[in-house]
Design a protein that fits this description.
By secondary structure, the protein is α/β, with parallel strands linked by helices. It folds into two domains: about 160 residues, FAD/NAD(P)-binding domain (3-Layer(bba) Sandwich), CATH 3.50.50; about 260 residues. The protein has 16 helices and 16 strands. The protein has a seven-stranded mixed beta sheet, with helices on both faces. α1 links the parallel β1 and β2. α1 runs parallel beside α16 and α4 packs antiparallel against α5.
């Protein structure tokens, strides 16, 4: 049984189905995918928007998705000319390309410093991915298997995550570029967690890029669901699980949920100490999303910004730091960090029949904020793209307080499914030798609230499924995931009770 059909839940389900197990996935939303869904929001004819995630640097390098081979299954990961851009006041901007050399050339006096900081991670990309996404409990995997890269990453955290961050650079564009990427962590700056986010995502921009799937994020979900069903798995949507007893009898349960939901679903089955530890798991700041429909491209003051698939708005490093401090203190920033993605820059097929285009945006806000951020986001874009208001045709706002309505794993707008901090990257969701086992026989947590944390990579599901196969079924070898791989013979066990809604 898998509760929740986000990328991690579906990853676990696919692996178990390919191992020959009977698998049933239950999802509360009307459609599967969790943070990887693309829907027609009714804002314009034949125009779809990515509901949560839109850009996928981790999908390119995820060991799970690479073995699954998205391209062989028809998923096209499309790249804009530039991975991301960061405009500054006065019409200036920095751009990061997949080519490290081109990026270095564009950064002028700070180009060599950028190369010295990120070049070693780019050169050892496989080691970086294993350090960040690998299973730290698996022999020969995780950070312990790649000591030099792990140590270099720690050194980078201590530099870019502290007041020493500015010592490396002489101008303001490169620091702003790194800070904008680090702001994905949505925490107070500077911090080691934000620095780690910046170094990882900035390096991956030079490795696999920051692509968008043709047609939207649901292309990845569609592949996972199709593979699950091709190997005998079942998926039921529109059913909210409130107690484990509502589910059919099974030999293993994987919860792609927050720890808070897991505590509620398991109830008295959880040991009291474990329940208290999970209930104390802290959640982070919120985001407020605004989906827009545009009549034309964003009129960026610096025209090359329009070459990028993702744009970080917030100004200089000092301005972003001030804005993130406001949010961390529970205040709305006057000029918040805003993320912008125009998928049509890489995927022209996303334009509607009359030429309209979707624009994906969100702003950092205090957790649980009820504020409609449409005007604030519009003003922040207009700051770097005068005349932007003139191309806006329609919009839809989702305050942080309502983000959980379309994904229960985003409580109060926390799209990271838990606070991103140096400690919580190690103790996620609690300090434990094995974070996926919940202390109830046969029940595992496989969401972004477990390592390696947020992102569309499926690796939390991969790691949890490995334990399920070994612990509950005695399967020590992971099944192949290539398109031609078939299931192994199904293990024998107790019959499942047929699942019926209600």
């Amino acid at each position: 049984m898998v509760v929740g059909s986000g990328p991690n839940g579906l990853a676990a389900a696919v692996i178990c189905a390919r191992a020959g197990l009977g698998v049933l996935v239950v999802e509360a939303q009307p459609e599967p995918g969790g943070g990887a869904r693309t829907l027609d929001l009714g804002l314009a004819p034949d125009l779809v928007h990515d509901l949560c995630s839109a850009v996928h640097p981790l999908a390119v390098v995820s060991p799970f998705l690479r073995e699954l081979d998205l391209s062989a299954r028809g998923v096209e990961l499309l790249h804009a000319e530039a991975a991301y851009a960061h405009p500054l006041d006065g019409g200036r901007a920095g751009l990061v390309y997949r080519s490290l050399d081109r990026t270095v050339d564009g950064l002028g006096v700070d180009g060599r410093a950028w190369r010295r900081l990120l070049g070693p991670f780019v050169d050892r990309a496989d080691a970086l991915v294993e350090v960040v996404l690998g299973d730290r409990m698996r022999r020969g995997g995780g950070p312990l298997a790649h000591g030099p890269t792990a140590l270099r990453l720690v050194a980078g955290l201590l530099e870019q995550g502290t007041v020493a961050a500015d010592a490396r650079f002489r101008a303001d564009v490169a620091p702003a570029l790194l800070t904008g990427v680090g702001a994905h962590a949505n925490v107070r700056l500077p911090s080691p967690a934000a620095a780690g986010t910046a170094l990882m995502l900035a390096a991956l921009a030079h490795v696999g890029g920051w692509p968008v799937p043709r047609g939207g994020s649901r292309a990845i979900t569609d592949v996972l669901v199709a593979d699950l069903r091709a190997h005998g798995g079942e998926l039921v949507t529109g059913v909210t699980v409130t107690d484990l007893g509502e589910l059919p009898r099974a030999r293993a349960y994987l919860l792609d949920t927050t720890p808070r939901t897991a505590v509620r679903v398991l109830g008295d089955r959880l040991p009291p100490g474990r329940a208290r530890a999970l209930a104390r798991f802290p959640y982070g700041n919120g985001v407020a999303k605004v989906d827009l429909v545009l009549a034309g491209p964003v009129p960026w003051q610096h025209p090359e910004v329009g070459r990028a698939g993702t744009v970080h708005l917030g100004g200089s490093r000092a301005q972003i730091t001030r804005a993130e401090s406001d949010v961390a203190a529970g205040r709305h920033a006057r000029h918040p960090v805003v993320l912008v993605s125009d998928p049509t820059v890489a995927d022209p097929s996303r334009r509607g029949p009359t030429g309209l285009r979707p624009l994906w945006t969100y702003a950092h806000v205090p957790a649980g904020s009820t504020r409609d951020m449409t005007e604030t986001i519009t003003a922040q874009i207009e700051r770097f793209a005068p005349g932007f208001r003139d191309v806006v045709v329609a919009s839809r706002a989702v305050p942080a307080s309502r983000m959980s309505e379309h994904d229960a794993n985003y409580p109060d707008g926390d799209i990271g499914s838990g606070l991103v901090s140096a400690y919580r990257l190690l103790a996620r969701p609690r300090l434990a030798v094995d974070p996926y086992r919940l202390g109830v026989s046969g029940v595992y947590l496989c969401s972004a609230s477990t390592p390696p944390g947020p992102g569309v990579h499926g690796m939390a599901g991969w790691h949890a499924a490995r334990r399920v196969l070994r612990d509950r079924f005695g399967i020590t070898r992971m099944p192949g995931l290539a398109p031609t791989s078939g299931p192994t013979p199904r293990p024998t066990g107790p019959d499942r009770t047929p699942f019926t809604d209600g």
